[in-house]
Amino acid sequence: MSKLIPLKPIGKEDIRKLEGALLTMVLYSQETLEMIRNPHERVTWIDSLYVAAASLAREKAGIPISKIAEELGITEASVRRHLRGESKAGELVLKAYETLVKEGLKINLPEVIGEELIKKREKINRIKQLLEGALKELENI
Question: Residue 61: which residues within 8 A CB-CB, separation 6 or more?
Fold first, then answer.
């Protein structure tokens, strides 16, 4: 359990912390990144991630579904769908919450991103070495 992220929020600040943690975990999940790459799915449901995270954080704070729906400007049926994981966004947010409960705030960059970062870092280091070599040659002129 994370000390910084309240699993049972009390007050608006705690709710925002839990929302932020859930959104961050979901946005960096392999599943979300794969969906974003798909042009047919791209960004059409990203706003639903916020609504799902906000619904769950408020529900964990003990706020009634009717009040959650009112605060978020959606129907009670939509709130329930997200909370039961019947929407894709709700499903992803529930998985993130379960991970948060079991392991604390955990963000795993997918291997593809990790590999890309390593390759870019290696390329930057090679360029840096070439530039340093060129500068030394210029100093010797």
Answer: 8, 9, 10, 11, 14, 15
Q: How far out from the chain centre does Cα 84 lie?
A: 19
Rounded distance, CA 16 to CA 58, Å? 9
Domains of the chain, residue spans: 12-108, 110-141
How many helical (H) and strand (E) elements, i.e. helices and strands, does the chain have? 7, 0
Query: Using CA atoms, how far apart are residues 73 and 35, in angstroms rounded to an integer?
Result: 26
Q: Where residue 140 falls among pLDDT bands split at 50, 70, 90?
A: confident
**Average pLDDT score over residue span 55-71:** 95
Distance between CA atoms of 49 and 22, rounded to whole angstroms? 9
Q: Which amino acid is at 7?
A: L
